Amino acid sequence: MPQLAGPTDPAADARWPDVKPRKGFFTDTSICIGCKACEVACKEWNHNPRDGDLKLLGSSYDNTGALGASTWRHVAFVEQKSDRIEEARATGRALIDLGMPGMGPPTLADRAPAEAMLPDTPEFRWLISSDVCKHCTHAGCLDVCPTGALFRTEFGTVVVQADVCNGCGTCVAGCPFGVVERRTDGTAAPKTKRGERKGEQPEVPNLGVAQKCTLCYDRLIDDQTPACAKTCPTTSIKFGDRAEMVALAQERVAALHAQGRTEARLYGANEQDGVGGTGSVFLLLDEPEVYGLPPDPRVPTADLPRMYRRAGLAVAGMAAAALFSFIGGRS
Amino acid sequence: MTTSEYDSVRPPEPPDLSRWGRRRRRRARSGGGDGAREMPLVPEADFTSYYDRPVVKPAPWGWDVAAYLFLGGVAGGSAVLGAGGQLTGRATLRRNCRLAALASVSLGAIALVRDLGRPERFVNMLRVIKLTSPMSLGSWILSAFSAGAAVAAAAEVDRITGERLPLGPLRPVLRIAEGPAGLEAAALGPELAVYTAVLLADTSTPTWNHAHDELPFVFVSSASLAAAGLAMITTPVAEAAPARKLAVLGVIGDLVATGVMHRRMDPVAAEPLHQGRPGTLLRLSQGLAVAGGIGTVLGGRRRPVAAAAGLALMAASALTRFGIYEAGIRSAKDPRYTIEPQKRRLAARRAAGITDDSITTAG
Predict the structure, then answer these.
(1) Is A272 in the B-facing interface, judged by CB distances under 8 Å?
(2) B93-113: pLDDT as tens digits
(3) What is the complex's ipTM, to 2 decimals?
(4) Average pLDDT over residues A15-35
(5) Which end of chain A is more exposed for a tag (fewer CB within 10 A), N or C?
(6) Is the CB of B242 inside 8 Å of chain A's CB atoms?
(7) What is the CATH number of domain B63-335?
(8) Most B CBs within 10 Å: which of A98, A144, A165, A168, as the mutation test of the B interface?
C-alpha cells in the first residue's frame, strides 16, 4: 500500500522507474487581472465542451461558476470593502505571528508596516484568483478510484484515463477541493426555451466519465508549458518544478509582507498539511474559504486504516450477534 | 423590520417553503432583489464562502445507490442467517434466506451498474485490486459473495422445482458445492454489509466523513435487523427463532450506534442528519426499528405479528440508508458543512500548539 499521508515524492511513491522532477503551478493571485485567458486556453487545448448554458451568475465578473468536468481553470472574482480588507490583513498577520517553523526565509513583516505606505486602494479591492486542480501529494480522487482510471504520472500529477473510467463517481466525492466531476452533456432535459442553448454545439467527448485538469500531461511529455500558464499575460500563473514554484512563492510572499501587505499568504506550500502539500501552490490575499477553497482539507484516505479497523470490529460484532442468535438460549 | 409605512397593508409573507429547519442564510446580493418582498438591509453575519457555492462536490449518485446500501445489507445478513439455518438443520430458514440473499444482491448489483456513468464498462471494476479504494474492495466482495449466493440459491431453486433445472451431469456437483458456497457467502456477508459504510466515510462529503468511526456499526446493525426482518416475514415462526434474536440484537445495535454517532460527530457536520427530509427519514427509521423490536419480543411467535414486525424492521433499515445517503449529499451541497468544521478543527489544533500542519502558511 502506498503512503497515505505526510510528505513524500508522489511519483516515486507510485513506483515510477524514471521519476521526473515534480511539476506544478504557482498561481500568484496578487497579479491576476481576471482576463480569463487561462480558461479559454485550457478549453481550446483540451477540447473541453461548453459547461452548461450561458448564464450571468450575479457574482462579480465570474460567470463560470466553479471548476468542473469541462472547466479546468476557473477565475474567481470577489469584491471587498475596507472592513474585509482590514480583516484579511489581520488574519494574515495572525498567521505570521504563529511563526511557521522551517517554512523558508524569515519574513520582513515583523517590522511594523507603515499603513500609509500600503499600495492597495484602502476602500475597495478585487480579489481575482485562477483556480485549478491541486494535483495533491495525497490525492483523494486517485486513492478511491476503483478502476485505476486515475493514475499518478511520472511528473507527480494526477490524470484520468478517459477510456478506462466507468463513471462510478467515487472520485467526485473523494476530492477535498471539489475539482473532479463526471461529465454530462447538459442535455438531460430537452431545451425548449428559445436561446437556452445558443448555436450548434460540437459533440461532447468523454461523456459519463470523470474529467479534470491533467496539468496538460500531453504537453508536459513534449517539454511544453501547460496551456494556461503559457497564455497568462501577467505571469500570474507560473509553471515549473514544484520545488522551484514553492521557493518562488515564498520569495513573493516575503516581498509582499515587506511592503506591509500582511494579507498575503500561501496555500498548498506546506507538505505537512492534510493532503501532503499540493502540486498547485497559490498566493492568496484572504482566507482560503473566501475564494471557495477549503480552509483545512484532509485527504479522507489518511483515515482509511482506522476506518478499516472500525469496519473489522463491526464485522466481528455482526458475526458474534449471528452466532449468539443460533447457539444462544431458547427464544 | 419595517421599511415603509405601507408594510402594514402588505399581504402576509408566505411561509418558508424550504424544508430545511435551520435558518436560511440571506445574502444581500442574491435573491429577493426583485422588490417583491421586504429585504433586510444588513445581511446576517455568517461564515464566509464564495457566493454560497459548495466547496466540495456531492457524489453524482442517484437513489439507486441508496437502494443498494439497503439491498447489500439485506443480502449480507440473509446469507449469514442462511448459513446458520444450514448448519443447525433449519431447512426452511436456509432456503428462504439463500433465495433472499441472491435476489437482493442481484437487484443491488443492477442498481449499481445502472448508476455508472458508463454502465457498459462495469467490468472495469474488476480491473485492479486496490486497497485504498473501498469501492474496489467492495466490487471484489460483491462479486465473490454473489458467486457463493448464486450457487447456494441455485441448489434451492433446483429442489423447489423438483430438479427441473437443466443441469444434467452437473447436479451432483451442485449438491456438493451448495454447502461450501452458502458458507462462503455467509463469510463475506458482514463485509458486504459494512464496506459501503467505509465507502461513504472515505469521501470528502462532510456528514459521511465525520461519521467514519460509527458508520460501520450503524450499517451492520441495520443490515442485521433488515435481514432478520425479511426472514421473519418469509419463514414460519418455528424456524425463525434465530432471526428474532438477531432482529432484537440489530435494533439494540442500531439504536446504540446511531446514538453514539450523533453524540460524537462534529455538531455542524451532524446537522443534516437531524434536519429536513433526511432528519425525518432517520427519526421515522428509529421509530420503526423500536416498534419492530418490541413487536418481535412481544409477539414474534405469532406469524402475523412477526410478519408485521419484520416489515417494520425492513422499512427502518431502508429509511436509515436513504436518510444517511441524503444527509451526506445535502452536506456536500452547502459550503457551511465543509468550512465550519474545518475551521474549528484548524483552530483547535492551533490552540493546542500544533501550528505546522495548516495548508495556509505565512511563508
Answers:
(1) yes
(2) 999 999 999 999 999 999 999
(3) 0.90
(4) 95
(5) N
(6) yes
(7) 1.20.1630.10
(8) A168
